[in-house]
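HOLO CASE FILE
Compound: NAP
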Amino acid sequence: MTKTIDFQVRRDNIAVTRTVSLTGQSEADLTDGEVLLHLDRFAFTANNITYAVAGDMMSYWNFFPAADGWGRIPVWGFGDVIASRHGSIEVGARYYGYFPMSTHLTIKPDRVTDQGFSDGCDHRKDLHAVYNQYTATTNDPIYTSASEDLQLLFRPLFTTAFLIDDFLDDNAYFGADQVIVSSASAKTAFGTARLLSARKSCQVIGLTSQANKDFVTGLGCYDKVGTYEDVETLDTGAAAAFVDIAGNGSVRARLHHHFKGNLKYSCTVGASHWNQGADTGDLPGAKPMLFFAPAQGQKRNQDWGPAVFQERFMAAWIDFTGFIADQISIDHDIGTAAIETLYQAMLAGNVAPDHAHIAGFDIES
Ligand SMILES: NC(=O)c1ccc[n+]([C@@H]2O[C@H](COP(=O)([O-])OP(=O)(O)OC[C@H]3O[C@@H](n4cnc5c(N)ncnc54)[C@H](OP(=O)(O)O)[C@@H]3O)[C@@H](O)[C@H]2O)c1
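Model generated. Tokens follow.
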């Protein structure tokens, strides 16, 4: 029996963390139909901060409940089955999916196929299906063992980028001639910009912080790059759509006031600016909407069918992962102290955009 480690944050103040260490679980703790996974590696980006910020509003706390006002932030990771009381799931199998920041996770596989399964635990039944899915590495067209880090980092983020680009195109850009993307240095942002630019249907403008301007410009994904100081100099003569990637309320408000009625569409994708008042009251221009990627994914799976969806996504993925390998370096933050440091830096927005982070607990399964 091994030790389990659980990284938790206060739901009412996500800067406060604790690490809970318990005597581990084994097959003897499982009931019929359950399996025990050991989380090997997971990606940590600003997106995971959104999961904490929107934990109550979007039910992210409900995936992996914790007691007494503590929360377990979801992460995308690879886990290995280390004990199984399910007839179709073998010890040693490796799955990609949604995990808490913990060494272990007990789940109850349901709808098992060669491709994977969904977690059928009662507390996850009402949560969005996309987050309940565990994909077997053995039958996953995206999977290669050499590219695991890229998959952890970019699969969720680039899927969102793919869906934002598709959503805008699906809606004829809401009549806009330019799409303005804030937090332009974020992985989700420049993935979106690369796809939008390739269509050549509208100008793609990136807005970023002064410190990250050179990185964003060097990516070559945007037609123009400006800093947040430049908002009031943007060309209001062309109708605009705004994609607020990380939920920067003050930039959003300034942009709405600048464009007024010529802002044809405005959406917020994430909420990583957790200590920035997001409520900016009534704003001129299009009413800001929440962009929820799984909804557009569901629509396109119905419109196109899963095979065509997969084929289109794969083509985009191959292009993007070829591009990104030269743009960022990947750091490995291993152990509870390194994870705490990474978490606090991400919370403060102090992570260089050309460094991506893969984390893991340094204990044996
Ligand atoms: N709705 C969805 O389904 C969905 C899916 C994927 C991602 N997202 C959202 O997209 C956003 C970006 O996620 P990501 O994982 O792509 O991020 P990332 O690569 O880790 O991006 C980090 C960048 O975001 C900006 N940023 C984020 N938090 C900040 C803070 N607290 N203070 C200052 N700058 C901050 C900075 O960009 P600048 O310097 O350029 O401003 C920073 O360089 C997140 O809010 C995430 O939740 C949403």
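CASE NOTES: The chain has two domains: 3-140+328-360, 157-294. The chain has a mean pLDDT of 94.
CLOSED: yes
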